[in-house]
Specification:
Layout (H helix, E strand, L loop, with lengths): L2 E8 L2 H31 L7 H6 L1 H7 L9 H24 L16 E4 L6 E4 L7 E5 L3 E6 L7 E10 L2 E9 L12 E6 L3 E5 L4 E3 L3 H4 L1 H12 L11 H35 L2 E5 L3 H4 L6 E2 L7 E2 L3 H14 L1 H15 L2 E5 L24 E3 L6 E3 H12 L9
Parallel strand pairs: 8-11, 11-14
Antiparallel strand pairs: 1-5, 1-7, 2-6, 3-4, 4-5, 6-7, 8-9, 9-10, 12-13, 15-16
Helix pairs in contact: 1-4, 6-7, 7-10
Length: about 400
Amino acid sequence: MHRGYRFLLRPTVRQGQALGEMLRDHCSLYNGALQERRDAYRHSSKTSIKYGQQSAQLKEIRAFDPESQGRWSFSSQQATLRRLDKAMQAFFRRVKAGEKPGYPRFRGAMWFDTVDFPKDGDGCRWDSTPHDPVTRVRLQGVGHVRVHQHRPVKGRVKTVSVKREGKRWYVILACDEVPVEPLPAAGAVTGIDMGVTHFLTTSEGEHQPNPRHGKRHADALAEAQRALKVFPRRKRESRTAKHRRAVEKVAKLHRKVRRQRTDHAHKTALALVRTYDVIAHERLSITNMVRAPKPKPDPEQLGSFLPNGAAAKAGLNRSIHDAGWGVFLGILAHKAESAGRRLIPVDPRNTSRTCPACGHVSGENRTTQEKFECTSCGHTSNADQIGALNVAVRAGLVLPDVA
């Protein structure tokens, strides 16, 4: 199986400067390649430049500018050009599908934060020995950078990436051939229902509270964003130190919320994997769930629109994003595979409207957010637990309550 590892880098002052220069030069290469593609398309709509053509020009570019381009890894520069090629392919795919195209944009110095090395040993080397207490990663043009390795790396290191987040640097390892470490059988199965009031509810009726990390930091984030808006829009060269500190404060709050949300997802998924052998969950399409409602034109008055519940839907969308269902389900799938557990996704339609006792389906069965009362047989229970029970039944699980 595949697994990713993320460790904090502890570069020296000189190594930190070299890492920043590496990001800046790769960003310049990305923007230059994008400009070449734009110029070719404007010259003739039938003319297109592919990755192979731009990759073949790298030798000339490195020879022409050895100070900024020649000292970095050739394979990492190819990975940067390949990233641009993927962005262009995604753009043309959206055009053909009739979606919003979103043409690839030029990257600023603060918006290009990752350099990829496609192969360990080509421009980089992960140097981790079991008897050496200090772990280092060797990067071409930077040197041997110290790594805070807080857990052992298993499997074969395939790719290495260096990422900047604020003032910190991280190394990300993508490993394959990682051995599976199955947990002992727990002898229990369950279905889970994702929600906003409760983060999730199991078919046994256990509720996992929703931490709402984004909502708890909403006031601090709003204050930081208001302070940022005080500064007028200026050219990049004329931004003051206060403006840079305001930008960093907003970014720091966003990073804190993201880390808290990810930490909660890891702990919740690990608890489920340790407790159950088989877990059934809803196959959620979060993109469709958070889509804004379509406007309703007023037929009696031209240019006016009828209320469509957009404000209420916006609040629900914020709560869904804050819960982080997609992040949690991805982490749960990874941990289930690593532990030898079985994960079953099912169709989520009408899971909270179907009575598990008689099978009657109606929107009136769910009278409130928490209460479920079947209009046919009178069965009552918690609405979230009903959804989890129906998820388990659709997955073919035999539960003590419904056997």
